[in-house]
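Intended use. Records like the one below are meant for learning the mapping from a protein sequence to its folded structure. Do not use them to infer anything beyond what is encoded.
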Amino acid sequence: MTRLFVRDTGMSFDHWRTQVRLRAALPLLAEGQPVSRVAHSVGYATASAFLAAFRRTVGTTPKRYLLKG
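Structure written out for the chain above:
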């Protein structure tokens, strides 16, 4: 199953799940919702876990990312 997932998507399930969560988070952040609410809404247990994943994936904080856009 894992090999098929990687073959079909080009990424691991964990990487895919992170991408899906962060994409779902962007409109909520753009609306001005608090990071803690967004984190829980997209499946993170804590805001710090969400922020770490966001920074690791995007390279900056959500606030700075939104200011650039």
